Amino acid sequence: MHDDARNLNFNFSRCSMKDFVANALVLLLTNFLYTQASKMEVISEEFIKPSSPTPDHLKTFKLSLLDQLTLHTYSPVILLYESKTDTCSDVLKESLSKTLTKYYPFAGRLREDGITIDCNDEGVVFVKARIACRLSDFLQNPKYETQSLLFPEGYLWKGSCVGYSFLAAQVTYFECGGVALTISISHKVADAPSLGIFLSDWAAMPRGEVRPPPMILATSIPYLDLAYIMPEIELEMSLTLVTKRYVVDAQNIARLKQSVTGLVENPTKVALVTALLYKCAITASTTKTGIFKSSTLIQLVNMRPRVEPPLPNNSIGNFTWYFTTSNRHQTETSLGDLVIQLKKGIKELGVSRLDDWLHGVRESANSVKQLFDNLDVYRCSHVRGGSFYQMNFGWGNPKWVTIADVLVKNTFILYDTPDGSGVEAVVSLEEEHMRLFDEELVDYVSKNQNLQLGSMTRSRI
């Protein structure tokens, strides 16, 4: 592949100006990626299989209703450790093999029908690598191009999982110490809470902790067939996306709370930060276009504690749903108004009997695609990141946990800061929108660069 990259050339004399520019950009990008790849050494790549074979009666099952409704995409998470040990890959492989015995669907494959999993113990991808980069440099400037090298090739924001490993992990050693552990997992078998529990159980294994097996939702809750093929949902991609990371610390959250006093009783930090991001995005969009446009915010919610009876925290699969907040008038976009709308949306989700709620989801499934067709839609999800900072495999807790730069515009992903008092926001917007958004948000984000961990912009071609 590298030889092909070096030998690429274009006959520019026969190109139109449009083609000339496009070809030049491709050549520049290819050469850049080749240079970056030369910094990375893949030491080994293998499939890790469960330490014990999956019993015959568990070999096949169908995806749950919510699994079927979920997008074909992989979720990429980065955990960075300051450990100087170079033996952690052996510990990770052995403990992963044992953990997969409990999480046997992850080691299987999805059939061509898109709804049936063969739990055939084919295993998950595991890569060991070394990179010519210091951990401290990456923390200061976490470029997307470097992020991509920390993941198994082809699994960063991968699409369909049919016939592929549901999970791909890579351990990468930095120069002068420090380790990155990355996990890319198909959303078809795991939502964010599932990933958190899986990582926690994996980390507990080498420490000798005994954990109960998880509940596999697809085999434990009532199965409802959609009775039709779910239309493919395509998320709009932009040619020039920018991802930035912001920290809203406890002091600024207190300021936000004070600003809505008398309007909202006991707002959560997540509601306050979500409303702030949405407000800044709306204002920036209005400044950019010169007119106010109505918009919709999709807020994802973990439904495990919201059904009756509640599902256990260690239930694995997809059990996340959403509510929407829409704004048709500029007068509805104050911080207080937005917090009120978010609180109302959460309340309206309510608590339902499991069977009744699942039937309601099936009835409303057709409306999901309409949400993604809306050009003025924003998406927000909160990952309870405090637990991610406790993923200690035996060499200490992570220095930083984050998601890779997001490929979908108008996306907010929120993590708890390590101490649990603040919120780290990963925001993806188009370039000009981001510049104006930055100006709106600046007064509420941490000025401490050690907390911001290199909030950097980048553009994609």
Query: What is the overall number of helices?
Result: 15
Helix content bin: 25-40%
Q: Looking at this structure, what is the CATH superfamily of the largest domain?
A: Chloramphenicol acetyltransferase-like domain
Number of domains: 3
CATH class of the largest domain: Alpha Beta
Structural class: alpha/beta
Rounded average pLDDT: 84
Strand content: 15-25%
Cα gyration radius (Å): 23 Å
- What's the story with the biggest beta sheet? 6 strands, mixed
**Uncertain regions spanning at least 5 consecutive residues:** 1-14, 29-35, 448-461
Query: Do you know the CATH topology of the largest domain?
Result: Chloramphenicol Acetyltransferase
Query: What topology, given as strand order, has the largest sheet?
Result: 1-6-7-8-3-17
Shape: globular
Roughly how many Å apart are the termini? 20 Å
Commentary on this structure:
With 461 residues, this protein is of the alpha/beta class. It has 3 domains: 2-36, no CATH class; 40-220, Chloramphenicol Acetyltransferase; 241-452, Chloramphenicol Acetyltransferase (2-Layer Sandwich). It is 34% helix and 24% strand. The protein has 15 helices and 19 strands. The protein has a 6-stranded mixed sheet with strand order 1-6-7-8-3-17.
